[in-house]
Amino acid sequence: MAETLPIVGITMGDPAGNGPEITVKALSNSSLYQRCRPIVVGDAKMLEQAKHFVGHPEISINPVSSVSEAKFEAGTIDVYHMDLVSDVKAFKLGEVSAEGGNAAFQSVKKVIELAMAGEVDATVTNALNKEAMNLALTPKGMHFDGHTEIYATYTGTKKYAMMLAHHDFRVVHVSTHCSLREACDRVKKDRVLEVIELGNQACLDLGIEKPRIAVAGLNPHCGEHGLFGTEEQTEIGPAIEAARAEGIDAIGPCPPDSVFSEMNGGWYDMTVAMYHDQGHIPTKLLGFVYDREKQGWKAVEGVNVTLGLPIIRTSVDHGTGFALAGKGTSNELSLVNAIDYALRMASGRASKK
């Protein structure tokens, strides 16, 4: 019955980007309403505008002030309306602005509140622009690096990590948004062990009974026994041994130049990457497919998941698409993937309860 389907809160992202457009595209598929009850959090006026950009004028936008008012019917997009954009006609698409940054931030903050209150079963975020968001927040004495830090702050979470996924290709990161020099310094036994544990739990939440977790090395050839670096011996190896002592099937340290190909071949359920680009590059190489002949993106797939939270948060694995805003050509596959992952995690958590 529809009343038992999970409720998914979806943020609109930065209104100057393509978030509203890909949201309308994703929710125009009636089959989605057979699997969940979606509600967009943001500004209904931006969704009203976006439906014309993407060629779906028949879709009805239903502004609500509470989740209980939502219809959850195919052909209608329910929007938890926060009136975040003062004048839609004057608002400039494709440009960084404090108004757009504030709208994106307030949408995220509200969807977190709804999830923490149990009003939605999972949250899915469209992209925000970090510069725009901090233009709005800095005068208020606030700063966030991105979604992950916002979620950690407003859920009171201390131990968390970013996971990227392209179907069954999954990567979780020891560090993300910091310099490469600092990232090397963050490769410590306790943090590596923490991320292995978070990755293992995520696999269990996804219904994988006996996860196999590969752990990448930091240095070329995993340091060649100290010739090219010692982190594998002093930090990563000991973390793997500690994880195995907990009953986790952790494998490694594995050479970073081959471990992702091995996971793509089905050897592992997840790989622990030591820093941002080590994990992002192979995942996006698989998910982002450019058509040379048509000179356009054939697929932009992938999901960003924050692990360790008391609530479920998945996200698109791409930016705000400022250059594409208003054109109606943006690809919604990553958002659809994010919704699917959120539903899978919600089902896994519900079965445990």
Report on the structure:
With 353 residues, the chain is α/β, with parallel strands linked by helices. It has 2 domains: 1-157 and 309-353, Isopropylmalate Dehydrogenase; 160-298, 3-Layer(aba) Sandwich (Isopropylmalate Dehydrogenase). Helices cover 38% and strands 20% of the residues. The protein contains 11 helices and 14 strands. The chain has helices at residues 19-27, 44-53, 98-116, 130-137, 147-155, 180-185, 189-205, 231-245, 256-264, 276-287, 333-352, and strands at residues 7-11, 37-42, 60-64, 76-81, 122-125, 161-166, 169-173, 212-216, 249-254, 270-273, 288-291, 296-300, 303-307, 313-316. Strands 3-4-2-1-5-14-13-6-7-10-8-9 form a 12-stranded mixed sheet, sandwiched between helices. Strand 8, helix 8 and strand 9 form a beta-alpha-beta unit. Helix 1 (19-27) crosses helix 2 (44-53), helix 3 packs across helix 4 (130-137) and helix 7 crosses helix 8. The longest helix is centred in the last third of the chain and has 20 residues, at 333-352. The protein is globular. It starts with 6 loop residues before the first strand and ends with a helix.
